[in-house]
């Protein structure tokens, strides 16, 4: 794919999964540059300027959302993340807490304690990364995580400007008890009442899957390595 907005190959090591941001077995990371590109493409398609509300209905550990919160916090009003797995929702909450001073101070103290105990170079580098990320935190950024099955209705959200999500696939993360294409159709149906009137939905998905959700208009499609990305808006 050709990057239109995140054109520089920046060093995102401070946002590496497991360095400062929390991770755990069974969760996946997401390319930070691609996350930034998706956010900026969505912003360019919206008729209003930010700050925007952002939601990931398959958030896992909220790696994607947390990266966006650091890179684009001036353009984000609030972040929401949900997942069907209660354990990863707890992880998501810990990661999104890093976007505010209290959460980052707590994480810095944890990393400093690890450095003092084990004297590892990786812990020293993590402390330095945490200090750099801490300097990026200005005003508080609202966030909320909750347990929800996106294939069922009743999410309780409204006026979401952007949905950005990496859809479950592969051995680590899969749809829970649902046919993949059926689950994706249900997701788009259940997202409709959560969206702002001109809100957009960006999804990254396996190349073999073709999606043309009812009630939506496709605004963009592009290849992302072995996967593909779509951006949709509701048909009004």
- DSSP helical segment count: 6
Task: Assign an overall shape.
Answer: globular
- The tally of strands reads 7
List the uncertain runs.
none
What is the SS-derived class?
alpha/beta
CATH superfamily of the domain at 28-97 and 142-234: Vaccinia Virus protein VP39
Write the element-wise H/E pattern from the N-terminal end onward. HEHEHHHEEHEEE
Class of the domain at 28-97 and 142-234 in CATH? Alpha Beta
Helicity, in percent? 25-40%
Largest sheet: 7 strands, mixed
Q: Could you tell me the mean pLDDT?
A: 94
Strand content: 15-25%
Task: Please list the strands of the largest sheet in the order they lie side by side.
Answer: 3-2-1-4-5-7-6
Annotated CATH topology of the domain at 28-97 and 142-234: Rossmann fold
Nearest-angstrom radius of gyration? 18 Å
Give a verbal description of the structure.
- The protein is of the alpha/beta class and 236 residues long.
- It has a domain at 28-97 and 142-234: Vaccinia Virus protein VP39 (Rossmann fold).
- The chain contains 6 helices and 7 strands.
- The protein has helices spanning 32-45, 63-71, 86-97, 101-118, 121-135, 180-191, and strands spanning 52-56, 76-83, 142-147, 160-166, 195-206, 216-224, 227-234.
- The chain is globular, with a radius of gyration of 18 Å.
């Amino acid at each position: 794919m050709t990057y239109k907005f995140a054109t520089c190959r920046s060093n995102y090591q401070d946002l590496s999964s497991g360095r400062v941001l929390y991770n755990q077995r069974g969760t996946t990371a997401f390319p930070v540059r691609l996350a930034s590109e998706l956010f900026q493409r969505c912003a360019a398609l919206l008729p209003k300027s930010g700050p925007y509300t952002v939601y990931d209905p398959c958030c896992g550990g909220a790696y994607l959302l947390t990266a966006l919160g650091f890179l684009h916090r001036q353009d984000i009003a609030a972040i929401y993340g949900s997942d069907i797995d209660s354990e990863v929702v707890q992880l998501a909450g810990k990661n999104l807490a890093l976007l505010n001073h209290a959460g980052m101070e707590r994480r810095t103290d944890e990393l400093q304690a690890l450095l003092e105990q084990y004297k590892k170079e990786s812990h020293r580098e993590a402390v330095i990364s945490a200090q750099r990320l801490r300097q990026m935190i200005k005003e508080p950024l609202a966030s909320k995580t909750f347990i929800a099955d996106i294939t069922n209705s009743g999410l309780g959200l409204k006026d979401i400007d952007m949905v950005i999500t990496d859809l479950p696939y592969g051995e680590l993360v899969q749809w829970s008890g649902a046919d993949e294409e059926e689950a994706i159709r249900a997701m788009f149906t259940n997202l409709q009442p959560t969206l702002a009137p001109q809100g957009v939905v960006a999804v990254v998905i396996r190349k073999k899957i073709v999606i043309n959700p009812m009630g939506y208009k496709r605004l963009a499609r592009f290849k992302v390595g072995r996967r593909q990305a779509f951006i949709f808006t509701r048909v009004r």
